[in-house]
Design a protein that fits this description.
- Two copies of one chain form a homodimer.
- In chain A, strand 5 (about 85-90), helix 5 (about 95-105) and strand 6 (about 110) form a beta-alpha-beta unit.
- Chain A starts with a strand and ends with a strand.
- In chain A, helix 3 packs across helix 4 (about 70-80).
- Chain A is α/β, with parallel strands linked by helices.
- The longest helix of chain A has 26 residues, at about 170-195.
- Chain A folds into two domains: about 1-165 and about 275-305, 3-Layer(aba) Sandwich (Rossmann fold), CATH 3.40.50.720; about 175-255, 6-phosphogluconate dehydrogenase C-terminal fold.
- A six-stranded parallel beta sheet of chain A has the order 3-2-1-4-5-6, sandwiched between helices.
- The first copy, chain A, is built from 13 helices and eleven strands.
- The interface between A and B is large, with 100 and 100 residues.
- Chains A, B: It comes from Pseudonocardia thermophila.
- Chains A, B: Belongs to the prephenate/arogenate dehydrogenase family.
- Chains A, B: One of its GO terms (biological process) is tyrosine biosynthetic process.
- Chains A, B: GO terms for molecular function: NAD+ binding; prephenate dehydrogenase (NAD+) activity; prephenate dehydrogenase (NADP+) activity.
């Protein structure tokens, strides 16, 4: 297995896959990171062309674990050195990645992926082989997906201890707009409003403000890459939020009542808490993509093959 | 010292004050809670009239630690049984409380207070004497405040291990609208948007969504009491947030760029992090209220008397 990009996700993936007994090699963006990974006993260089040729030679799965802005450049190398390879990715949007693959490496056998794991840290040193334990790992179940590569990606997720959530690329993007990208924008706006005026408010800010703004501390370029790469889905989520906030503002100004907003939020949070204990199931090899998508839509997760 | 209300805040206050060597008695809303507190060795009954008469007899400080909706009823009892007592409170809004005191117990020597501590728990059993350690405790520094009662409240805060933040009642309300009430409403809206549609989004929701919606799990009646009790200040905070979200929506739809929003949020979160290490100082007894307010506005906190 060939991993392009050895940051938090790529680096954790290499550790988890090697621990699961796989042969893993990869490439880093800098000599320094390659040396760090090599010192930790991993087969990492900066020669992406060579790594991709090796993948082509043995028909290995190639995992793209670079930020979205770097993807087009890497895909051009894929088209040159491993044009028909088995290909997946670990980027946080799926439609934009599929579009880039179609444009730059159209012959690659691509099935998108998104392991839903992360920490505030980044870089090779922050990686760990347990990062994906019990995490959700979306495997794109679009019509026409190559079932063999779908199997490769699902088995990689399981080998890393994750649970597979099948979803169409556009369904994935709508979901993450609501539960990841909008929360980042809300955190940014909340932080900015808290910092208006003098220092009194920030001095008093604790519990609810600390939690609500935590992800505003994420490196801006990471937030911009994922949010701007999911523009259409994100606009829908922002409009839904603006509609709810506008209705709340109207109620507060007229009757002063906030019960509808607060009770809807409380109920939604209870539903989220219940979803922490998802239905886990196994499926038969070759289950059609449409059937797989239904599993994802009902919030269930796949832990292995039924046989 | 007489504490009316033995929930999380009142119960923690009794424990902290008794540990600091003070004579403390209080009243609970139910026989059951009174029995619980008595079993823990505290002087707690349900007879508010008797507790207030005792406070009047020895000119003790009375602390109101009941939710805002229960306050008018308690203040009527204060007016009857301890009309000129030294009085403070631990409610999360200050203008509304001052208005209620002026209406129902106008002769009480009132100085508002707000210990900024709390957990997700509530009730006597959840209380603990360390709750206020290193916490900010706002002591209302309005012009005309009785300096003797101001001293009582500040010394109570210090006895409980807290740091005093002086602020005018209306300045306090504007600050908490931004850093506590708005975060609760944002959490509610974020949770509701996440729960729209099928179960896929909630199944994938983790880190940023879990943090951003945490306080949406607070009991709705508590959130409603504090937010609806701070309507005017909250409207300003909501409008500021709507302005920022609207501008962001426009930028996302036109250029697709979110840098301004994300970078402002990042910078604000850094400022908040820096404010975790506030300037700590001592002041002379009798420092004028206007001077005290300046200390609060620059984010500093008072830990004791200068003498």
């Amino acid at each position: 297995m060939c991993v392009i990009g050895t940051g938090l996700i790529g680096g954790s993936l290499m550790r988890a896959a090697e621990k699961a007994g796989r042969t893993v090699w990869g490439t880093a963006a800098s000599e320094r990171t390659a040396a760090e990974a090599t010192a930790d006993g991993f087969d990492v260089t900066v020669d992406t062309a060579a790594a991709l040729r090796r993948a082509a030679d043995v028909d290995a799965l190639v995992v793209l674990a670079v930020p979205l802005p770097a993807l087009a450049g890497v895909l051009k190398q894929v088209a040159e050195h491993a044009p028909t390879c088995r290909l997946t990715d670990a980027v946080s949007v799926k439609v934009a990645v599929a579009d880039l693959v179609a444009e730059h490496a159209p012959r690659a056998r691509f099935v998108g992926g998104h392991p839903m794991a992360g920490t505030a840290e980044s870089g090779w040193a922050a990686g760990n082989g347990e990062l994906f334990a019990d995490a959700a790992w979306v495997v794109a179940a679009d019509d026409g997906a190559d079932p063999e590569v779908w199997t490769d990606v699902a088995e990689l997720a399981w080998a890393c201890g994750a649970r597979v959530v099948p979803a169409a690329s556009d369904e994935h993007d709508l979901a993450v707009a609501r539960i990841s990208h909008l929360p980042h924008l809300f955190a940014a706006v909340l932080a900015a409003v808290g910092a208006e005026g003098d220092e009194l408010a920030l001095a008093l800010a604790a519990g609810s403000f600390a939690d609500g703004t935590r992800v505003a501390g994420t490196r801006p370029e990471l937030v911009l890459a994922m949010c701007e790469g999911n523009r259409d889905a994100l606009l829908g989520a922002v409009d839904s939020a603006l509609g709810r906030l506008g209705a709340m503002r109207g109620a507060l100004a007229s009757t002063g009542g906030l019960a509808k907003t607060v009770e809807a939020g409380y109920e939604a949070r209870q539903r989220w808490a219940a979803a922490r204990n998802p239905e886990l199931l196994r499926v038969r090899r070759g289950t059609p993509m449409a059937r797989l998508r239904e599993i994802g839509r009902r919030g269930a997760m796949i832990t292995g093959w039924a046989e």
